[in-house]
Design brief:
It is a single chain. 30% of the residues lie in helices and 21% in strands. Bound molecules: S-adenosylmethionine (SAM).
Length: 205
């Protein structure tokens, strides 16, 4: 039971199962007592809403980072392309309008801070220590590794690193997030504390 969870959460466009949403919420509720949360890859705001609802009772914030131009798999002709999110006048995907509509409907405008930028650009001048980082951005190996390298240095000791789309079997899904997970575990900086569907939750030691 998540207080304030929109009754239409299943209809919000996105790629998170209910169990993954609950795990994000539970971990963010604890972590956000110590600082803000940052997610890389907000899309239409589904994960943002779970994180925002967790931050609210702690007077914390979610930085919702996304350039809103879609990942490779969202582009026209690709498997996860959604024509509703395509701006034909500009010839680009644009998920920001839908993101904002969903965050506003959930009553989270004062908790969610949208950062409409590429992950690497946003990280360049970043100074704020983070209590939780959720990686769910681009799924090419280069992009996923960049997200890890750019943002993990900002994660506080004891903070939570969540990674979506972990598939040990390449037949089930792309391997880049799992490569990031293995890199994090091999670094000795993290312990795995929870796995729900394809969501991994790690704690920074
Ligand atoms: C899988 S979707 C995120 C799904 C979302 N977390 C949810 O709950 O439904 C990935 C998002 O990452 C964004 N993205 C991809 N590469 C990015 C980058 N380098 N910087 C910022 N955003 C990026 C895309 O625009 C897309 O909206």
């Amino acid at each position: 039971m998540i207080p304030g969870l929109p009754t239409n959460i299943d209809q919000i466009k996105g790629f998170l199962s209910a169990g993954e949403g609950q795990a994000l919420y539970d971990n963010a509720l604890q972590a956000s007592q110590s600082g803000p949360v940052l997610e890389i890859g907000s899309y239409c705001g589904k994960s943002t809403i779970y994180l925002g609802l967790a931050c609210r009772p702690n007077n914390s914030s979610v930085f919702a980072l996304d350039h809103h131009r879609g990942s490779e798999e969202h582009q026209p002709g690709e498997f996860f392309h959604d024509p509703d999110l395509y701006d034909a006048t500009q010839g680009v995907l644009d998920s920001f309008r839908e993101f904002r509509r969903n965050v506003t409907s959930a009553g989270l405008d004062d908790v969610v801070v949208p950062v409409v930028a590429g992950s690497e650009s946003a990280a360049r001048q970043w100074q704020t220590p983070l209590a939780m980082v959720f990686i769910d951005g681009g799924h090419s190996l280069a992009t996923a590794l960049t997200d890890y390298r750019c943002w993990v240095p900002h994660l506080q000791r004891g903070g939570v690193l969540a990674i979506h789309d972990l598939f040990e079997d390449a037949y089930e899904g792309g391997q880049a997030p799992y490569a990031v997970f293995r890199l994090a575990m091999a670094s000795g900086l993290f312990e795995e504390v929870q796995r729900v569907d394809s969501l991994g939750i790690l704690r920074r030691l």
